Amino acid sequence: MIATPANPESVFTYGAPQLKFGDGASDEIGFDLSRLSVRRVLVITDAGVAATGIPQRVADQMAQFGIEARVFDGVHVEPTDESLVAAIDEARSSGPWDAYVAVGGGSAIDTAKAVNLLTTNPGELMDYINVPVGKGQAPTEPLKPLVAVPTTTGTGSESTTICVMDVLSLKVKTGISHARLRPTLAVIDPLLTFSQPPGVTAASGMDILCHALESYTARWYTTYDRKKPEQRVPYCGSNPISDMWSEKALTLLAGSFRRAVRHGDDAHARADMAMAATFAGMGFGNAGVHIPHANAYPIAGRVKDFHPKDYPAGEAMVPHGMSVALTAPEAFRFTFDAAPERHVRAAQLLAPNAGQPTSPDQFLPMVLTDLMRDIDIPNGIAAVGFDEGDIPELVAGTMKQQRLLATCPREVTDDDIAGIFTRSMSLW
Ligand SMILES: NC(=O)c1ccc[n+]([C@@H]2O[C@H](COP(=O)([O-])OP(=O)(O)OC[C@H]3O[C@@H](n4cnc5c(N)ncnc54)[C@H](O)[C@@H]3O)[C@@H](O)[C@H]2O)c1
Fold first, then answer.
1. For residue 347, which of 10, 69, 184, 364 is within the disulfide window of CB 3.0 to 4.6 Å?
2. What integer pLDDT is reported at residue 170 of this predicted model?
3. How far apart are the first and last CA of the chain?
4. Is the CB–ligand 1 distance for residue 157 below 6 Å?
């Protein structure tokens, strides 16, 4: 367990973007940008979202405010360093742009964050990627306004300071993390999320759920050594404010997750999921996430030949929310002893009518696997193509995610992670 520090932390931090939430909120983006004296806007999206017509509608609606908006639909679903560089090149050659509007899921929003950074600051993508993969440089120049308009109910990227990508040559998922990446305005319009197919609703919903559970069970902020002001990081551990967001997100998921997957036209369920994603984003964006997200990086980065339903055909991938979910039941069995009451409370919020098993450490894993089975998430990492021989490389990939493991409520060794992967081969 984590030892009590001699000089414990007494401060936690909280950051969030300006936020507009509700049916029709996306109709007001032109007005909002006109207040910032914006004239030329690049709308950034992927081809699947573009096919719904939503990004063009957002772009067209800006014309009445004298704003020229162009749609770029070249975002790669689950961005890579190469896809980000291509988007940056496109924005540099067609710019300058006064502002960016990201319309889509985490893939579009993260791409827009990278485009915004690299069209306002000198250097190249690798200069800003977290060490040890990149140089971890901080931006020196202010960024342009970025409006983030999520069309999935999942990542919370509209609220966070992070941009995630696969670095193809190294087969690792990593990112850029800096407060200036946080969008200027998050516009969450539940009406834009109805067209998500069931597979996307299920995977991205598991991302919400794990954001809420991981930030709720993250290492408590006072168990760290006291930091100097210049040492503060966005992820400060669980704290009273992030707890509030996480608990509320769990309650919303309990009522609406299965329904949103099975009945995509249920307005109440879609609105609850959009609210849950926003709440969980506010929680984890400040408290942090831990083992399931750290494991997700090598699971997604080392995919072999898995082709999920409802995602772009022809490309092997384990979608982000799915890759996070696959080891979550075993991760929470492992962290149970660090905060038993929190694990039990989370399970109760998520399944208020479930009977509690005799052994309380089984409760949260049981509630999670019941849900995953119901919404068609694969049964463990073997079901997405991994076998026992892959475990050493998966463990090595997880242990590189020290920024995330720093918020784990227990010390984690290579053997602990290997055990979690082994027990996650098949979950039920
Ligand atoms: N920056 C962060 O804080 C953060 C947090 C978590 C995840 N992420 C990243 O976000 C990415 C995953 O994002 P995601 O789960 O939101 O999905 P996504 O953006 O990858 O989209 C998934 C699929 O759903 C389609 N889609 C999206 N909205 C739709 C709609 N309304 N109607 C029809 N189709 C729709 C897309 O075309 C795509 O094929 C990953 O790269 C992940 O690493 C970032």
1. 364
2. 86
3. 29
4. yes
Residue 225 confidence (pLDDT): 95
CA of 201: how far to CAs of 134, 205, 324, in Å?
32, 6, 14
Separation in Å, CA 48 to CA 27, 41, 195, 225, 310 = 21, 21, 10, 46, 10
pLDDT, averaged per 10 consecutive residues of the chain (428 residues), comes to 89 92 98 96 98 98 96 97 98 97 98 98 97 93 98 95 92 89 97 98 98 98 95 91 97 98 98 97 94 96 95 94 98 98 98 92 97 98 98 95 93 98 98
For residue 54, the ligand 1 atom closest to its alpha carbon is 31
Q: Please report the pLDDT score of residue 1 as a whole number.
A: 73
Q: What is the pLDDT of residue 359?
A: 94
Q: Which CATH superfamily is domain 198-423 in?
A: Dehydroquinate synthase-like - alpha domain (1.20.1090.10)
pLDDT given for residue 17 in this prediction = 86
In the chain, domain spans: 24-188, 198-423
45 in Cβ contact with 108 (< 8 Å): yes
- Fold classification of 24-188 (topology level): Rossmann fold (3.40.50)
Q: Is the CB of 264 under 6 A from ligand 1?
A: no
Question: Ligand 1 centre and the CA of 303: distance in Å?
Answer: 17
Which residue in the block uniquely carries the two structure tokens 């070249």? 74
Distances (CA, A) of 165 to 73, 82, 86, 264, 286: 17, 9, 13, 29, 20
Q: Which of 109, 152, 193, 289 to mutate to test the pocket of ligand 1 (most atoms within 8 A of CB)?
A: 152
